[in-house]
Amino acid sequence: MNKHRSTPIDFEEVLDDMEDEDQNPFNLNEKIENLKVELKNQQKSMTVAEYNKKRAIFEYLTRLDDNGKGKMKASTEAVQLVFIGGGPYKARSIRYWANYWLQYNHLPVNHQGKHKKTIRLIDDEDIAEKCHIWIRFQGGTTTPLKFKEFVENKLLVDSGVMRKKTISVATATRWLNVLGYFFQSQKQGKINYIYYNDKLIILILILFTLKIGTYYDGHERPDVVQYRQIFLDKIYSYEKNMAKYEGENMERTPPTLGPNDKEVILVTHDECVFYSNDGKRGVWAKSGELPLRKKGNGRSIMVSEFLSEECGRLKLNAQQHQENPSVPEEARTYLQPGKDREGFWTSEHLIEQVKTKVIPIFETLFPNCIALFAFDNSSNHAAFKSDALVASRMNLKPGGKQPKMRDTVFGLNNQHQSMVNENGEPKGMKQILIERGLWKNGLNADCQLCKDKIDDINRIDCCARRIISLQPDFLAQRSALEEVILEAGHKCIFYPKFHCELNYIERYWGAAKRYARENCNYSWSGLQCTVPAALESVNIITIRKFARKAWRYMDLYRKGITGKLAEYAAKKYKSHRCIPDYVLAELNK
Ligand SMILES: [Zn+2]
Which of 456, 478, 500 is the C-terminal boundary of a domain? Predict the structure, then answer.
């Protein structure tokens, strides 16, 4: 048995990508009609293999029902119609060809011949070197088409190779791969806001996500893994009071609630930027040599959105809106970032959105439920209110530039303490510690170890700032965002860093961007029309499937499966919300 011989390396990926999303039926019917015409008119110019594959795709697609369901049955029937013999593996191949064809408009490159002992031109060192020089000279603007033109018009002519004057784009693409160049998509820079000594510092972090998997440095860092465990314990403590969405149609199974329990609904948040020059998805580059994307004059729209499995996008329908005229219609907020437009998106914007839109809409839609709002672990979301108890904002002595903090309590008897003295000045760390009986002679504001950020949980009284920061009231200080949510009677959780697979809204952005690419001319006015349409194009079943995938990852991590194995299992058991025990036993072998 050698059934994997002709399976291309991207087989699983293409199948997985495509099965996760729903086809636009209008587009699909048009494509099927075009294929029918092609099969009829170009029959003679196609090879037998090509004709059979395209015919199989046609027979398969026409047999799917209006919702794109019934894949197994349709592909099995297509096998029987087109091929002599051929079982489930052939049916699976048809599904792969069809998905590939729908995505790229041509059949996958035949990999069967790749182990043949022919010597390719590109294997010649001199030829490869000439290609490398040309590619480098292009400064990140190489495309397979431009490379093909170079090969045909320059390389083959200069090398005296006259036998074959043209190469296909597929060959050019393969040669680029042989030379170590791969198509890499880029993620734009993320803007973070950090307070340091009470001054707002804006950090622009350029993060790249290579489209080769979810995992990169940081995912398994000890502090991140430790926090992931805390996150999982917390989210699963709420999960038993949440509805579950499973099955082919992602139907709701309500939670079994105790007499004093309220249903909990997970509402996930993220921000995403759509650029008017997003049309170009990425560049051809060597791994690790990804050039910065030139932003040029590309304008952008930022979207801050909230999703739940219960209702998809957090918004009221027409009737709900009419019955609740004081509640905004939808939670989504747009911002056009950049100078001279609306300025930057800050934690204040997000808090305003949560206060005025998100919580009122949620409470209108789900009157007796508790929201569990989930946010990325960004410093923007961790910003404190100006009067919050934050040790890093304090001076040792009274007065000066330190903020006036809110009153607090300390000690076993919850003794009241004001953070300002009689003349309205902030007391400073020394006075606060004296009043708590924690001051020691010779204590400095900071010690060298703390300044050097050398962390040691056993070092608890090295300097005034350390002692104060470990006081229970300071440890319990919540961010401004969390305070707003807790005051409204809801809950809040922050995803672990580097774990974008757990925030399913990332897949929602992906689907919306794919729609935007296909439907936008990327002019500024085009972008303004397309972004809302792109977001609305993702339906609730798809959103629930995205969520199911995130739950599957959480289940795997909770059961101790991480890294590549988790990625494999999350893809393989795509219809499962959690991983069945027999699979777990298999994975743990
Ligand atoms: Zn210290």
Answer: 478
